[in-house]
Specification:
This protein has about 625 residues and is an alpha+beta fold. It has a 6-stranded mixed beta sheet, sandwiched between helices. α7 crosses α8, α11 (about 380-390) packs antiparallel against α13 (about 460-475) and α17 packs antiparallel against α18 (about 555-575). The protein starts with a helix and ends with a strand.
Length: about 625
Amino acid sequence: MRVRQLTAAAAALLLSAALGGCSDDPGPRAPAPVPAPADPTATTGDVGPADRTAVQDGGTLRWAVDGVPATLNVYQGAATADSALLAHALYPSLFRPDEHGRLVPDPDYLAGVDSTPPGEQPQVVTYRLNPSAVWSDGTPISAADLDAQRTALSGPDPARRSGKAAGYDAIDSVAQGADPHEVRVTFRRPYAEWPALFGPLYPAAETAGPAAAPRTPADGGRPDAGPYTLSRYDAEGGTVTVVRSPLWWGDPPKADRIDFLAVRPEQRLDALDQERLDIAPLTAAVDRAAPAAPPEPSASASASASASASASASASASAAPPPAAAPEAAALALRRAESLPDVTVHRAAAASLTQLTLNAARGPLTDPLVRRALTRAVDRRRIADAALTPLGLPAAPLGSHLFAGDQQGYRDNSDAAGPADPGRLLDEAGWMRPAGGGTRAKDGKPLALSLLVPAGSATAERTADALIAGLGESGIAVQRVPAPAESFVGEHLAAGDYDLALLSWPAGPSPAVEQRSVYAKPRPDLDGVPEPGGNFGRSGTEEIDRLFDRAAAEPDPEARLGLLQEADVRIWQLGHSVPLYQRPELVGVRTGVAGAGAYGYGWPRFQDVGLLR
């Protein structure tokens, strides 16, 4: 049972890039410490031009997705990345991330927002909803919608609660303010990450009822409130169609219609080449490209081989060229993508951090000194170069567990791991290197570790090659263990069956909340066995937990950032894991399509996506 619970929690984290009456008036309110409203023309990542004046009105866009999701509610366990993509076209988010990962108010939904001054209790956030914002059935967006979502995501029903529902339990009440467009949210405890709440926001009709038997999008009859409205939801046919919402109050959507088509990653290059797609994420298509199959032997060759099979079988096998390795197949797929006529490959560093996790509950890594030595032995620049340069991305290594390189607040804290010479630390821990070099040993046992890698990933293979070579130079022997997606979490991570593992975690705008479970100190279960939860490194301290909790409750942005930097320093000193690089993101976009590409921290502003004049 414990492993099954861990698997569900891990899958949610691994597959994610978060998401009564009022109390007495607390007095005058100061502006909340959030950036100015989003600039509608600003883009993140590598996105094609989105000047609305250059985009024609009308037309249909065809957008590849992995599959038609079972739900559009990102807070449900069945939600996927495609659920979130579609939700951004159909549902409000009161805030959206800017190019540096900061959450800023979206003027399509918010006319203004303010909060009580830092330190004043209770904390009250007052939202001024855009008076024009309505659901597709004509009902105004109101306090009732925010209250129903708060109640659903903070209640006792486990079907409602997920890792993306953090913060709703900190709310004491949601109530209408001075008029129907004002909403006052009162918190029972300080909660600094409140801009991450209500994004997406679902109608009260969707969240107020029981979660035991949620309707599917195909059932219809559910209101939305985006620039587009749902027209078709065909899971069997692999198509979701959205069309312009007749009640949309903001900038008119440029395209008449967007067809989201379920196309497997390995089929997307063909679909682009055959002009059956306009926008296609290509990261998996390139990273997991299959090696080319060897050519079938001709009939005459087969006959000849059959005549002398026993004499020539081994010679034929040795003479046959080996299948291309994953990195070679990926390089071929990328070259093909770049050569497709009228298609541009957009590249960006995704809002996802790839790290090397160290299992502190097994073998030599139970010694903190060995873990710190290993973090120093990892050549992060060499690894980033191996992983990212072949994809045309800068070789930018990470030095923070909590922030991506282009995220506001990023700082390289790797020096906190200790002396730069890992050999000195390993000598101190008793792992000595033979006089002629080679693998270190202690009490006759070699310093040999396993490395869990996602099977079939070219980026993971290049990362593993560079990692193994670098650690070998320090006398640490590493053997890779590829694991398929279906067993990666349950049979290895959750079970603790690994020494080192390559993982990717979302880099969201609220690390104090979103990253806490990755580093939270494991707690004993009813049997007294430490329960790692989402912390697969299985190391943690009370101090790190307190720093995360204090950061989540700290309303002053500079003070909150200082607490998070201190937490990152302690994680480095603990030897929990080694940040490596941001996961790459590749998207193929047909020439003449504006507002689409690799979005990085952001998501599409769907009303701007369309065809150039």
